[in-house]
Amino acid sequence: MADSSKDLQLRELKDMITDLKKMIKTLQATVDAANKREEALMQERDNLKDEISLLRKKLFGTSSEKHPVDFPGQLNLFNEAEREQDPAAAEAEELAATLSAEVSKKRKNRATDAERFKGIPVTKKYLDLPDEDKVCPVCNTPLVKIGEEFVRRELVFIPAKLKVVEIYSLNYSCPECSKQDIPFIKKGKDGNPHMLYGMASAGTIAWVMYQKFCNSLPYCRQEKDWKQYGAAITRATMANWVIRNSEAFFRPMYEYFHRKLLERSFAMADETPLQVLHEEGRRAQTKSYMWLFRSGEDGGVPIILYKYSPTRAGDNAVEFLQGFKGYLMCDGYSGYNKVPDAKRTACWAHIRRYLTDAIPKGKQLDYTQPSVQGMMYINQLFHLEDVIKAKCSSFDAIKKARLEKEQPIVEGFLSWLDKQTPIRGSRMDKAVTYIQNQRAYLTTYLEDGRCSFSNNLSENAIRPFTVGRKNWLFCDTPNGAQASAIVYTMVEMAKANGVNVYHYLTYLLEKMPNDSMSDEELELLAPWNEAVKTEIERRAASSNQ
Fold this sequence. Notes:
elongated, about 55% helix, 5-stranded mixed β-sheet, single chain
């Protein structure tokens, strides 16, 4: 009986131990789950802190992408093996150091007055003595002029003036024919077509365009400015001038530039949001887009084109680049993959930005950080690009130097990339994901010396639009947005080809290109044409007389 009681107690204790073990496992699982949740929350907190830090940097920090050639100490070690294997690498680095020193020295030199005011006519003004003072106070002998002495230099601004020109024709008739009831009349003509939409002259319309699309001055501010000169010109009138004249006279040039771009083998692209208030079937807050397409670094004349589109769909790039067969430099947007005959080239500047953003605050010199390690490779590539571009005089030489110097670094970077296992959701995770998505295009630039290493030229070309957008904020209608794209094209084409923007716009409005003109005729109006350049220079010089 006692043994049975003990056995029963033993079984109860065993059952209790089993239950306790199950409870412990349950509690342990609960604790582990809580720890995982806490860890995830802490990681999310850290990610949010990093995002806040990055946003503060973007808002209040420097926007420069300048970077040191070397990280102190560590990057020099990174180069040591290369120096041992290839003496030419050391030579290249020495050349780069020399070039960097020269650049720094040039930047310190202030521009002279002659350089800053080149092309502005100079008028001499003499400070003379009154006649009564042109005698010697000692012996009353008349003073004799012995020379002149420079005192100071002044830049004088002469404000613009407005005038209204009323044009009349003088009419003539034959008195003898009139006697015989055969009227014969001749009217005076100036030989210029008067087809500009509105009463404004070509120069006036060009000035409105120049103020908005070059100086980023919206129509509402221009309206106030015109009032200061005594002219009541509304913003609606100015918008109408721009839309109608750009469509009539700039579009043929725009389409000609487009055809010339498609003939090139190297192109670049970018896009940026735009708000258009009155688009059929869309809310005013809906994003539209302004696209930027331009020629690459192939040594040809620069071509820059803007294109308005209601959406960011890759079909817009496909439509615009239809017929283009060559290398296309752009950012990581997958929409460009739809361009059928284009060979994508990755932008290493975007890769650098992602890695830069992934570096934790205060860890820029912590070489255990994967993002810093990645930046070592990127900095080496940018450094070598500067050296190669400065040293090589031909595209074949650039290709050869890239294959010799940069390809091993790219391969090392890809090997490093394959070893990265960043925390999910972190900035490093975003950087690695972005780079992996671009992996197929990272080495494309090595195939031809004319291929661009980054998309910075496109971003520089689209920046005037983004600066202007901060001032005029939006476009009212799709027609206005497309007119903006066309005028921006003419403005940036003038800049890129080194001609005066205002005078080139005036020149085109006077020449009135039209759809009936052949490409040979339109070529004579292009900003790279030497005759056009000469004419624009003459006009610019004449306006300063």
